[in-house]
Design goal:
Blueprint: H1 15-24, H2 28-39, H3 53-64, H4 67-83
Length: 90
């Protein structure tokens, strides 16, 4: 009786929204891989998950450094970022 009176609203979902919904169902490591793939290797961005063993390893290694060692590492990172042109305040 009402079939002719129905107006389809958002009958076809936006393709980006469909992809986002599918991505939400992926495990965290696969989402990180997807982000890295979309950004490309040229971006220089490394995606780390809070559940990653690499994060634990990096934190453990940083905790082993002396204050001077940690300052040296952080300064080297800052200089590299500045040299790559990503920051002008170093």
């Amino acid at each position: 009786m009402y079939e002719n009176d129905l107006v389809p609203v958002n009958a076809q979902a936006n393709s980006v929204e469909t992809i986002l919904q599918a991505a939400k169902k992926l495990p965290v490591d696969q989402r990180a891989e997807l982000v890295e793939t979309l950004l490309g290797e040229e971006s220089g961005i490394v995606v780390l998950s809070a559940n990653s063993h690499l994060v634990d390893y990096v934190i453990a290694q940083m905790n082993l450094l002396s204050s001077e060692g940690l300052a040296y590492v952080l300064k080297a990172i800052a200089l590299r970022i500045a040299a790559d042109g990503h920051c002008s305040n170093v």
